[in-house]
Design goal:
Blueprint: H1 8-22, E1 27-34, E2 39-46, E3 55-57, H2 61-69, E4 73-75, E5 93-100, E6 105-113, H3 121-166, H4 170-184, E7 189-195, E8 201-206, H5 214-223, H6 225-232, E9 236-238, H7 241-247, E10 260-268, E11 271-280, H8 288-319, E12 327-328, H9 329-346, E13 350-358, H10 360-367, H11 369-386, E14 392-397, E15 400-406, H12 410-429, E16 438-446, H13 453-476
Parallel strand pairs: 12-14
Antiparallel strand pairs: 1-2, 1-6, 2-3, 4-5, 5-6, 7-8, 7-11, 9-10, 10-11, 13-15, 13-16, 14-15
Helix pairs in contact: 1-3, 3-4, 3-8, 4-8, 5-6, 10-11, 11-12
C-alpha cells in the first residue's frame, strides 16, 4: 500500500491508516527532519497528543533521541522515563522508530498508547520492518517531488526565456515576469524593482490589485530584506517576518501584512539591475526548494532584463540625433508609418511640418562650425519646448527639421508655424551680430495630401523647395 504511490501526502496517509487498522494504534505521528533548523516537525498525525504544529530539537525528548541515535526507543511506562516530554496525561506507553534511508534519519515514526506496556515484542518487530518500508516510500516520494520541481523549474525558466526573446518593451517584460513568478509561487505577491540611472530603486511591476506604498520598499532598501539581498548579492529568505522584527525592531518589511518575504537580487555581469520581492501572508511559506527556484528565476530574469535594456538603448542610439538630442531621419520614417496606421484605425487626421534654416551655411562660414552646432541645438530646444507631448521632433538632415503632429488641423499647423517663427526671431535677437535666422516651411495633411508615407514626404519636400526662393528673397530684403 505505501509503496504504490509517489505522492508524499498519500504515502503519509497510508502510513497512518496501516498503523491504525493493522496495529490498532490510534495515536500516531510522522515527524520529518528539518535539516535547516536541526529540528523534527509533525508532518502527519492521527490523534497524536502533540498536534500538527509541534517541533522538537533533535536530541530532546524521546523522538529527538531517536533521531540523534538512529535507534528505536520503547518506553513501557512514560512515568518512569526522564526523557519523556509530557503532552497528554492519557499517554501511558510510547514507541518511537527512526525511518532510515542509507543510514540517514529522514523521519521518526512515533506511536503512543493509553495502556502501560502496550507494545509486544511481535508488534515491535513488525513495526520496525514497516518503518523501514515506509522510509523507502517517503524517500521515493521525495525524489519524485524533487524531479517534478526540477521539471517545473525548467518549464518556468523556459517560459521566462521565451517571454524575453519576444519582448521589445521593458515595462511589458517586467509585468510578464511578475505574472510568471506569481503563478509559480501561488498565493504570493510579487514585486520587481529596477535601479534607475541615478541609483535608487523604483517599483516597476507588481501583481497586487492595489498600488503598494513605494515608501515601504524604500525603507526596506535602507534596512530590510531588499538591503539584505543586495548586500549579500544572493537571495534572502525571512520565514517569519513578525518574529524577525521582534529580534531586529528597526528592520522594515516590504509589505505591512507580510509574514514571509523572499528577495532575489537581479545581477548581470556584476551589475545590480534591481531586485525581485516575493511576499506571503503566511509564515514559513517558502522552503529551500523555493529559494532554489527563485534564484534560478532571478538569474534568468536578470539576463532577460539586461538584454531588453540593451535593445532599448540600441534603438535609442539608432533613433536619436547625437548633436541635438531629438529624433533623427531614420525615426522620422518609422514615426510617420506608425501615425498613418493609427490615423487609419481611429479615422483621425494628422499633419507633418518641415522647415529648412536659411543662411545656415553662412553661419558656419562666418562664425565657425561650433556656432552652427550651437544654433542647431538651440533650434531643437525651441521645438521641444513648443510642441505637445504627443508630437514628435526630428532632425531630418543638416539644417532641416520635421514635426509630426497627431490630430492636428491645417489651422492648428499654421499656429505652430507662427510659434516657431516667433521663436526663431527671439533666437536671432539673443544673438546680436550674427546672421538672421529665417526658415522655409512646408506642410502636409493626412489624408488630404496623401495616404502613404511616400506620397506625404514627396509633397512635403516639393513644398519646401517652392518656399525656398521666397524665404531667401525675404531674408535679402
Amino acid at each position: 500500500m505505501i509503496l504504490s504511490s509517489m505522492d508524499a501526502d498519500t504515502v503519509l496517509h497510508q502510513i497512518l491508516l496501516i498503523v491504525r487498522n493493522y496495529f490498532e494504534v490510534s495515536d500516531c505521528a510522522v515527524l520529518m527532519v528539518d535539516a535547516a533548523t536541526h529540528e523534527l516537525y509533525v508532518r502527519a498525525e492521527n490523534g497524536h497528543p502533540r498536534g500538527s504544529k509541534a517541533r522538537f530539537k533533535i536530541g530532546d525528548g524521546i523522538v529527538g533521541h531517536v533521531a540523534s541515535s538512529m535507534a528505536p526507543i520503547y518506553v513501557p511506562d512514560v512515568t518512569k522515563e526522564p526523557r519523556y516530554i509530557s503532552s497528554d496525561p492519557k499517554t501511558k506507553s510510547e514507541f518511537a522508530l527512526p525511518m532510515l534511508v542509507r543510514d540517514e534519519v529522514i523521519a521518526v515514526l512515533d506511536l503512543q498508547s493509553d495502556k502501560v506496556d502496550f507494545f509486544t515484542d511481535d508488534m515491535i518487530g513488525l513495526l520496525a520492518i514497516f518503518a523501514a518500508q515506509a522510509a523507502v516510500a517517503l524517500e521515493n516520494a521525495r525524489l519524485y517531488s524533487v524531479e517534478r520541481r526540477r521539471m517545473r523549474q525548467i518549464e518556468f525558466i523556459n517560459l521566462i526565456a521565451r517571454s524575453a526573446t519576444s519582448a521589445n518593451d521593458l515595462d511589458q517584460l517586467l509585468v510578464t515576469l511578475c505574472d510568471l513568478i506569481s503563478d509559480t509561487f501561488e498565493g504570493s505577491e510579487v514585486s520587481i524593482l529596477i535601479r534607475d540611472k541615478d541609483g535608487p530603486l523604483s517599483l516597476n511591476a507588481n501583481t497586487a490589485g492595489h498600488h503598494p506604498d513605494p515608501e515601504s520598499y524604500r525603507a526596506s532598501a535602507r534596512l530590510g530584506i531588499i538591503a539584505d539581498a543586495l548586500n549579500a548579492r544572493m537571495n534572502v529568505l525571512i520565514s517569519n517576518v513578525p518574529e524577525h522584527i521582534r529580534e531586529v525592531p528597526q528592520w522594515k518589511p516590504c509589505l505591512h501584512n507580510s509574514q514571509s518575504e523572499m528577495a532575489v537580487p537581479l545581477l548581470s555581469l556584476g551589475e545590480t539591475l534591481g531586485v525581485i520581492v516575493i511576499s506571503q501572508t503566511q509564515p514559513n511559506a517558502f522552503n529551500n526548494d523555493d529559494r532554489s527556484i527563485a534564484q534560478a528565476a532571478g538569474d534568468v530574469c536578470a539576463t532577460a532584463i539586461k538584454n531588453v535594456q540593451l535593445s532599448e538603448e540600441l534603438r535609442r542610439v539608432a533613433n536619436i540625433d547625437s548633436l541635438t538630442g531629438v529624433y533623427n531621419q531614420r525615426y522620422f520614417h518609422i514615426a510617420v508609418s506608425h501615425e498613418i496606421s493609427r490615423a487609419k484605425r481611429f479615422e483621425k487626421q494628422f499633419a507633418i511640418m518641415m522647415f529648412d534654416l536659411q543662411n545656415f551655411r553662412v553661419v558656419n562660414q562666418t562664425h565657425g562650425f561650433d556656432a552652427g552646432d550651437d544654433l542647431l541645438r538651440a533650434v531643437a530646444h525651441l521645438l521641444t519646448c513648443t510642441i505637445r507631448s504627443i508630437d514628435t521632433v526630428c532632425r531630418y538632415s543638416a539644417d532641416r527639421f520635421a514635426l509630426i503632429l497627431p490630430e492636428t488641423s491645417e489651422n492648428d499647423v499654421l499656429a505652430v508655424e507662427n510659434k516657431i517663427i516667433n521663436g526663431l526671431n527671439k533666437l536671432a535677437a539673443a544673438r546680436p551680430g550674427t546672421t538672421p535666422i529665417t526658415a522655409a516651411f512646408g506642410r502636409v495633411q493626412y489624408p488630404a495630401n496623401g495616404s502613404t508615407e511616400l506620397e506625404l514626404v514627396r509633397h512635403l519636400l516639393a513644398r519646401i523647395d517652392r518656399q525656398k526662393p521666397q524665404s531667401s528673397s525675404a531674408g535679402a530684403s
